[in-house]
Amino acid sequence: MNKSKLVLAMLGGVCLAGAGTAQAVNWQAGDWTLGLGGNINAFYTVTSCDSGDFNSGGTTLAGLACGSTDDDAHTVSNGLLPASLNFSATTNQNGYDLGAHINVYYGLTSQGGSGSDALAFSTVDARQVYLTFGNDDMGTVTAGRNFGLFGLDAILNDISLVGIGPTFTADNPGHTTLGGLGYGYVYVDRLAQINWTTPDMGGFSATIGIFNPMNGNATGGSAAGQDSPGFHGKASYKWDGDMSGMVSATFINQDMDLGGDNDSTMRGWDIFGKLGLGDFGLAAYIYDGEGMSTLALGGLVFPGFDATTGDAEESSGYYLQGTYKMGNTKLGLHWSESEQEKLTEVENTRITLGVYHNLTPALTLMAEYSDMESETSVGSDDTNALNVGAIMFF
Description:
Helices cover 3% and strands 57% of the residues. The chain is built from 2 helices and 23 strands.
């Protein structure tokens, strides 16, 4: 089992190569190779809020950490990754590599975020359902519901991908936390799409695709995107050697109808890079967007558009991250910031310190401490969270 590939499979990162190679179990069914894998994780988290000037218990933009209480919130919940079962079927026919992928996610908390009530049931979410076909000459086509391109490398390389990072409604958790969403990068989201990726050309590859239009969150109404599809594109370059690494850049663009005579556009670009030298690792990310909050495409919690004026929210963010491996243990330090500056002025900062220990190749034990602050024109709120837990890939 290749744990790193399995994590990528759960976030759409191997949609071009096929998730079958990442599964814990593979078996043959005629000409097809079937794969099954997944993960289970659980974390005990203590979240503390200083409601500050807002008197909101930490419920600023991406914080939403302690709800209505200004006291500590104790929870046992999923991390940024929900638990999952990942199914794949791959084969080669007439010179084409074919793949079918269905990834289903499960929450520890009960339906509606009502905790662990005895008669309640956990949530189930089929986030990824997509097919792939192609070969070394033509590249690969991906069609179905999968993660987008904008912000994908940022979340895949966040140290808290297998942990928690910033919490989310800690006193009434859902089946995922925020990780760095709203703190340095925007959620990549799961979108219906058809895209094409070039063959690998000495480490360079590019992807271009059309995506199902998204509706945005707008003050005074909704922002409809059905008049045209969304467009995503990505270019990346990877290299090996004593100092290995990769760089990538993506864009997103979609026209939006705000009603009446008002039109707007959701657009954004980002750049990601990472380097590895021996046991040291360094990653950096920066993005700039319009028509999106710092948390999500199109806006979430705060609007992405103003339906009255046609203005689009302007957001930007970045992060810096360093890691060091000592045998089976990795230390990580993550610092990030996001900012909205058009419709709602908000600035979020995050510092996360994490320790991740591979007890076995499949099981990772970890502890993280995160300090988050949200500032607006009327004040600030502070939140900090300490979590310990485990994630097992199979």
